[in-house]
Prior knowledge:
With 140 residues, the chain is α+β, with helices and mostly antiparallel strands. It has one domain: Aspartate Aminotransferase, domain 1 (Alpha-Beta Complex). The chain contains six helices and six strands. A six-stranded antiparallel β-sheet has the order 1-2-3-4-6-5. A hairpin with a 3-residue loop joins strand 5 and strand 6 (111-115). Helix 3 crosses helix 5 (122-133). The longest helix is centred in the first third of the chain and has 20 residues, at 24-43. It is globular and about 35 Å long.
Amino acid sequence: MLDRRNFLKKAAMTIEQYFTNLPIEARTHLETLRDIIRAAAEATNTAPLTENLKWGQPSFAPSKRTGTPIRLSWSQKAPERVEMLVHCQTSLVEAWRHKFGDLFDYDGTRAVHISLAEHLPEEALHIMAVMALTYHKQKR
Length: 140
């Protein structure tokens, strides 16, 4: 059962507070992912991004209806990794799986898992962010 007080605390938190509360390894990876997403938004002319917390996770949505939001996450339930999530009804994770194979671990149609023990594959992550931020535009 969801504890209402903890939910309200998370709802009132900012992205910066979210990052501050993370272990250093997770914070470093997620801050780098945020920078990659912002750079992808600049490269695709989908900036500025709307940045806020959705479901207690940092969310980065393109300013135009060109793509789908990207969320980032770390959890104490899986402290060895971070996640990059997209809307589960898109075909993005399947496209990433096809393009990048075993470079990542995938969670169905909603996320990629990124190990904290490994160096971030920044070029692949940039491509993934571009694909998400332009998802609707590419479908047309």
